[in-house]
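Example S7 (structure tokens).
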């Protein structure tokens, strides 16, 4: 049987085994609030657990935790807005192409596989992705019907096909990304043009939109499920070179790697600008992010701060401000 530690025991553990100054009722309350495992253990490193932060005082742990929490609060509504808007732009274009029921879309537009020879590996890869997408969408419909989601049950009860807009209401951002990926090249390019993100030099095949969706869906999921975001550990894979090059060209922000949170601020601001957000709102977002970062800077050692935000933080923020 595993014997757990009380909060007082955990405080002793942090003092004796980790060299962290922690004492008194305020620190005890803070440790209770953030938790040892979610709070301290979740914020004791940057990026991966081999890059540990050399905390000397519990106030530093709390500062990083609060920075992370405030970033999630700052970005949550923006990411939700972006998700809704991208789905609506896609719907707006598809309405102009033909019927908006899924079976028509599946047969006539989700056919990116057709550009490959039927005997090629790419053909089979794209066909499998298309079939997997159909399974994921049907799975989402089934789940939301069982969960009594009104928008899904309404069409079942009326024995009518479920329109794509209703499906978009219930699918995840990741499934939506796969949807865009399976669209044929002409439709992808039209949607990218509607969003003013099509570039003949960086986006010749209309892939930038799906790149953006797959990138921000990891951030969105971390925010929605209270994961850690300050060090970008939520990222499942490196962003494609074409996306990084395109963003650098458009924003004039250099060295975009998505290894620091400032790069995610860049892409959020970029998308919001494309979606018509005002300069005032975009500057407000940047200013709020800078203010949170400055608060963190005042509370932790400078080397730790630099390892979190990057050595080129100010230069990137300056370029982003100019872009806005």
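Recovered sequence:
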């Amino acid at each position: 049987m595993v014997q757990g530690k009380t909060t007082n025991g955990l405080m002793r553990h942090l003092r004796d085994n980790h060299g962290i100054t922690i004492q008194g009722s305020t620190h005890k309350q803070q440790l209770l609030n953030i938790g040892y495992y979610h709070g301290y253990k979740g914020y004791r490193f940057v990026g991966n657990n081999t890059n540990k932060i050399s905390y000397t005082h519990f106030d530093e742990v709390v500062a990083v935790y609060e920075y992370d929490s405030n970033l999630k609060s700052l970005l949550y509504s923006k990411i939700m807005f972006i998700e809704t808007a991208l789905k609506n732009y896609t719907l707006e274009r598809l309405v102009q192409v033909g019927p908006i029921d899924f079976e028509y879309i599946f047969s006539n537009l989700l056919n990116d596989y057709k550009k490959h020879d039927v005997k090629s590996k790419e053909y089979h890869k794209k066909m499998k992705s298309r079939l997997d997408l159909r399974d994921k969408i049907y799975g989402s419909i089934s789940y939301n019907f069982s969960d009594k989601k009104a928008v899904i049950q309404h069409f079942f009860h009326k024995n009518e096909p479920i329109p794509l807009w209703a499906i978009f209401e219930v699918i995840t951002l990741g499934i939506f990304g796969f949807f865009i990926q399976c669209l044929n090249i002409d439709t992808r390019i039209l949607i990218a043009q509607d969003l003013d993100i099509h570039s003949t030099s960086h986006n010749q095949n209309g892939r930038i939109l799906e790149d953006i969706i797959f990138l921000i869906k990891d951030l969105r999921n971390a925010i929605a499920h209270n994961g850690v975001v300050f060090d970008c550990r939520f990222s499942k894979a490196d962003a494609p070179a074409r996306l990084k090059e395109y963003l650098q060209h458009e924003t004039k922000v250099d060295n975009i790697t998505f290894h620091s949170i400032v790069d995610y601020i860049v892409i959020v601001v970029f998308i919001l600008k494309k979606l018509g957000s005002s300069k005032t709102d975009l500057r407000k977002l940047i200013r709020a992010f800078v203010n949170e970062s400055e608060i963190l800077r005042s509370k932790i050692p400078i080397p730790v701060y630099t390892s979190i935000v990057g050595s080129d933080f100010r230069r990137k923020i300056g370029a982003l401000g100019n872009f806005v």
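Notes on this example. Residues 136 and 160 are 20 Å apart (CA to CA).
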